[in-house]
């Protein structure tokens, strides 16, 4: 590259940043729409965005000098939050080199941190934005995770040196935003992830009882390590099962400061997990819980939230014999805080979370509860309440203007803001469609257009 091209490229980059900054600083007023704040409904509402945050939500006029977006006849919501997601962590699930969500090391498990493998240029992120998604909880894959694409040969029992392969813990989740840019990380290490039920039993040696005993012994060793770090460093402590990195990563879990996302399906296993959480004084988030409706009152009494796929209704195995479409509604009716997931690991079909929420409404979940399960409740579950997920003054301005009810498949976003910055409503798939449909530059090789 010659100097002129280099200087030209730098000038273009500086210009694009300069253009982005005024857009962020510009006051935007979205007026006349039906505003679903995440916890209430405002008819003919006005949402004001300023300096990347929600300045006000109400029914007043737009501030003087603001850019006005007329949302009359439209719906305005917070940006949706993808939970149990792989967005930014994998590109093509069958191509190992693009998958930074799975870890088969037998010396590193709990300390695995997905935030280091995030790709802001992932092709799947713009597709997710087209479904109204503005944030995601990115979780590591493990045997039994909804991310799938984890094969039985990846779930062997004990590895060399006594370490479990791939380990009882899958690693640590991260929060990301889905805006254009070079850094999508919002907060790393927001939760630990572990499989229970049949998948967890397979990791522990083949039986559920083995996993629970192993888990309790691991927590005991983590607490021992936390009390005796200096002794451990000078080799004055007995040998422990896990590496120092894994022990350190699990200290916040053992102390109740970091929640543990537990993938679990059948009702019996859910009850055992609730009992384990009480005995160990740890915070858990249930992931899956297809049979949760059978024990919804127990889940609610324990104050444990659930990440649920509202369309899971087939007994694909003995863990999901009682799965049915009313699960989300039953959990909500019992007082359980739920977040509704997308499909197939929340990557290529992440945007289908809103379709799943619509199915839940068709099967008894109140509409406002479905919106909350896509917005304010996921933020609350992962300790981000007040930061995003709700249209409330002071929150980061993740706002979507919809052509109609966002739970209806034919409705589409007409404007998407993330932290106050308006996002393009396009994706690689749409660009390729337009390129070949309209005969744009490079649509056909030069020989065909001579």
The rounded distance between the terminal residues' Cα atoms is: 30 Å
Give the full name of the CATH homologous superfamily of the largest domain: Metal-dependent hydrolases
Inertia-based shape: globular
Mean pLDDT: 88
Largest sheet: 8 strands, mixed
Q: Could you name the ranges where pLDDT drops below 50 across 5 or more consecutive residues?
A: 1-22, 147-166
Number of domains: 2
The third-level CATH topology of the largest domain is: TIM Barrel
Indicate the CATH architecture of the largest domain.
Alpha-Beta Barrel
Number of helices: 13
Give the class-level CATH name of the largest domain.
Alpha Beta
Strand content of the residues, in percent?
15-25%
Secondary-structure-derived class: alpha/beta
Radius of gyration of CA atoms, rounded to a whole number = 23 Å
| Total count of strands | 16
Helix content: 25-40%
The H-and-E topology, N to C, reads as: HEEEEEEHEEEHHHHEHEHEHEHHHEEEH
Keywords: Signal
Domain Amidohydrolase-related: 352-413
Organism: Brevundimonas balnearis
Signal peptide: 1-25
